[in-house]
Structure formats: structure tokens, C-alpha cells
Amino acid sequence: MSLMIVGTMAFDALETPFGKVDRIIGGSATYAAWSASNFTQKIKQVSIIGGDFPQDEMDALAERGVSMEGVEVVKDGKSFFWSGRYHMDMNTRDTLVTELNVLEHFNPQLPDSYQDCEFLMLGNLAPAVQISVINQLKKRPKLIVMDTMNFWMDVALDELKKVMGMVDVLMVNDSEARQLSGEFSLVKAAAKIQQMGPKYLIIKKGEHGALLFSGKQVFFAPALPLEEVFDPTGAGDTFAGGFIGHIARTKDVSFENMKTGIIVGSAMASYCVEKFGPNRLKELTTDEIDARIDEFVELVNFDISIIS
Amino acid sequence: MSLMIVGTMAFDALETPFGKVDRIIGGSATYAAWSASNFTQKIKQVSIIGGDFPQDEMDALAERGVSMEGVEVVKDGKSFFWSGRYHMDMNTRDTLVTELNVLEHFNPQLPDSYQDCEFLMLGNLAPAVQISVINQLKKRPKLIVMDTMNFWMDVALDELKKVMGMVDVLMVNDSEARQLSGEFSLVKAAAKIQQMGPKYLIIKKGEHGALLFSGKQVFFAPALPLEEVFDPTGAGDTFAGGFIGHIARTKDVSFENMKTGIIVGSAMASYCVEKFGPNRLKELTTDEIDARIDEFVELVNFDISIIS
């Protein structure tokens, strides 16, 4: 039984108020796999890369227990490339360049060895690709989590709604939740989105934390107040990887355990933003992760016993 | 021993996406007193009003145990008036009208009966007025909390810094913390502001919650996700009233107890925004307050025991 992660493996060029990199490893599946591999070693990666993607990056993930059998390599193609510039608040960014390259013809074919998928993380991709992956699985996973973005709401809303009806957990940010639901209040937005299919909704609010909704239940996890957010690229994918990694480790898909998963994801994301790209994730130790989770406990822990 | 609240008692005219009122009771001391009076009945109010301020509003507060001896009535004067319009996100607003009226010559003289002040809440006012109040007290209160706003940073920074050196707790919002410190990171801003005097700093982030900093300690309280924020006016003052009311009730000025105070203040603020003006606060029951505090516990409570 394993965790399957579907998403991009790519190059990014980034500008933040703290620096600039011209070409660094990125992609939703890259961040998610690095993050999740701290919690489970049975990860099956699904992605597509060009001949330009470094072999040592593939090897490094493979050493963490991530199977690369489902990563299609287009030898004479170029990997997906994204370039963006962050504003001072780090919550808003301008896309400077998007080169789809090999991603334009991404039509993943799952290897047989991937059929044991118990937990499925669908990174932000065309809804049609997400649907195709689900449909290829002979046995429905215990939990399907999907990420998406406003772009697909603009250009592929019908397909997006279709895949939403097939998954358990949807992850979007606050403005996407508002766009998708047509409601400004996130409480109302969450209710409407759950009616579209997913029983669980995670709304990511960047530096303002994340909310988990299911029915009448709601849970809030703050983001850790940081001295410096160096580069927010991949923070959402790292969060997703930590969340699903924790679920895969515990094999517990209850609301209570998802709450813990969100804290784990938040802790991972708080590390991700400390350096450019996935660099900080690659060097993380278990002790560091535990210490960061303890910081979250301290951050929100209060005593109401003195209130009579 | 008592809690002294210093601030405005006023009229507001408000426009929100949900409605409009031309003239409603407002003012920082009004909201703070209504809020705090749920937790302590020894409140000494310090404010100034015109002959136009309704006697029944004064009587209603007096019935809650709030002494009006320190409220100066200028019979032929008009009460402070503020008019504003909220944007859809309810976090930003435009001031349409500010008529200082009697507030222009506010020079509070504390009655002798106010000298037993143990806890002092200085609402947002000219720093010179805040300093004058502190200086009139023969015995320093156990805890002095002050609120302020960006306006005083623009026009009276030196006096603001002086009063900051005399208080224990400063309350500001996130943009004010950034302006005051010149730091974008709230962690860095908090460190700098503490160097200016206050040992404790509370940064209010509206719908995104509140942070409490002291030295290396940090605590985060979320705002309750609400279906509707009807009118955010007075939410910050209601928060302050709940915070200091809880401190006065427990007579415990530790960081741990301030955390609980912030939850109590957040619960009160979440009720305040449900109706125009202080109307919701006036009808609140103890059971309702306890139920809302329980919601906060549920909202942030998670289990890490399953993480090995």
C-alpha cells in the first residue's frame, strides 16, 4: 500500500524581496514528495519531465523512497518552467513566464506497480489529467486529496466540478474558495464547496494559516510567525505533502487526524519558506520537524480551566 | 480595587455591505465597558460627552456596575462623531466624517474614588491624554494596557513613544505594528516595539486573529470563522474590554493568563460584529459567552499524541 503523488516536476525562476534565482528545481510533485517522504517511504511519483531535468534530483528523491517509475521522461523535450516575482507581503505574486513545454502533452499512464495506491495526492494540474489518474485506479484509494487553482476555474470549470465530485479533500486558497463558491464569507464558501463533492475542504491563507471544514466542524491552524519568509514558492505543495504524508503514516482519515495532518503540513511549510526552492526541505531532520510541531503546540495552547 | 477604562463615548454613522445606520452609540470606552462588565463589576469610566448623549445609555452602563463619575458632561457641547464606510473585506474602511466636538478639549480629571485603580485600559486617544491619566494616579496600576492608532504615529510620535514607555501592554493592528517599527515581519516588529517600552505586545489582525508577544514567547489566537460579519465597528475595543476584564477578574498578569484573556477578548469581539454598534453586546448572556469560548477551544484544539 502506498501514497501516490501526481504533479509537476519543473524549473522555476524566482524573485523575492530577499533575492533572485534564475533556475532552480521546483514543481508541485517535487515539493510534495520531499515533504511527504519524511513520514512515509512508500511514495509513487507521477509526473513528466524533459531531458534537461537533472538525474541527481531524481536520484535524491529515489533515495528517499520515492518511486520514479511513473515519471515520464521526454528526452528531447524541456521541463515545465515557471517564473514569478513576489511582492513585499509574499502573499501576492506576478507570473512573469509560463512555459508548459512537456507538460502540454502530459497524459500519465500509471504503471501496474502503482495500483496499490491507498492515498492519492493530486497536485494542481488540468482537471482532465486529475480525472484520468483516478479513473486508471482499479481500486479507489482510501483518501483522495486534490489541489487546484483559479486558472482552472476560469478555463475548465465543468471538468473541475467533475473531479471535485470524485475526491475527498479539496485544497484551495481563500480567494479561490471565494471564486469557486461566489461567497465572500469563508464559512458560507465552505458549505457551498462541500455541496459540490468534497467532504473535506482545506482553505489555505498563507501567512494567516489554514482552515479545515467538514460539515459543521471547523479547525484552524495558524502559520508560524516567522522572522523572515525568504521564498514562499512551494509552500502550499509542501503543506499538502506533509498533510498527506501524515495521513499515509497513520492510515487514519478521521477529521481529528486531519487536524494533526494540517499542523504537520504547516510545520513543513514553515521550513520550506526559509530558503529558495526545496533546498531547506532536503536537509531537514526529524528532530527539527518535531521541534517545529512543538512550536505550533505552544503557539495555540491556552488554559481555560481558570474560567469558571 | 477596580478597572479603569479611558476612551471615547460617541455617536457613529456606519455603512457596511449589509446595511447602514445614521446615528448609533459608539466610542472605544463604550464598547470596552460593555465587554468588560461581563467579567468584573468594578469599572470606572473616564470619558467626555455632550448634552446630546442619551441618559439611558449612561444608565444602562451604570446598571452593569460601571461608575460614570469620571465621565465629563458638557451640557451645551456635542459628543464626538465618527462616520465610516467598510469595504467588502470588512478589514478596510474609509473615514467619511470625524467631528471631534467635546473631545477636542478632553482633559480628564480623575475623581478621588478612581484612585483605587488596579487595572487600567487606555483606549485610543491623544497620547498626551493617556500620559495625563497615568500621571494622575498616585499608585501605579498592576497592569496598564494601551490602544493607539496610526494617526498618532503620524502626528504625535514623540508623545506616543513617551506613553509607550509607561505601559505594560500595547495593542495595535498589523499595519500599525509595521509602521511603528519600520519592519515588515511581525516577529521583527514585535521585538523592536518591545524595546520601546511595553513588555507585552498584542497585534490585532482582524479576521485573521491576534498575536501576543513577550520576549521570546508568542501566542496566536484565531478569529472565529463567521458566516457573516455584519459590522466590525468596535470589535477592537470589545476585544480590549474582554481582555482587560478577564485580567481584572483573575488578578493574574502572567503571560499564560494573558493568553486566556486574548481568547476571551476574541470571543467577545466575535459577538460584537454580529449586529450594528454595541447592540449584540448588550444582550449577551454568560452561557453564550461560555459557549463561544468553547468554540475557540474546538477551533484550535488538536492531538499530537499520535505523532511518535
Explain the overall architecture.
- The structure is a homodimer of 308-residue chains.
- With 308 residues, chain A is an alpha/beta fold.
- Chain A has one domain: UDP-N-acetylmuramoyl-L-alanine:D-glutamate ligase (3-Layer(aba) Sandwich), CATH 3.40.1190.
- Chain A is 37% helix and 27% strand.
- A 9-stranded mixed beta sheet of chain A has the order 5-4-1-8-9-10-11-12-13, sandwiched between helices. In chain A, strands 3-2-6-7 form a 4-stranded mixed beta sheet.
- In chain A, helix 3 (127-136) packs parallel to helix 5 and helix 6 (174-181) crosses helix 7.
- The longest helix of chain A is centred in the C-terminal third of the chain and has 18 residues, at 255-272.
- The model of chain A has no long low-confidence stretch (mean pLDDT 95).
- The A-B interface holds A 88-89, 184-188, 205, 208-209, 211, 218-222, 225-229, 246, 250, 252, 256-257, 259-260, 262-264, 290, 293, 297-304, 306-307 and B 88-89, 184-188, 205, 208-209, 211, 218-222, 225-229, 246, 250, 252, 256-257, 259-260, 262-264, 290, 293, 297-304, 306-307.
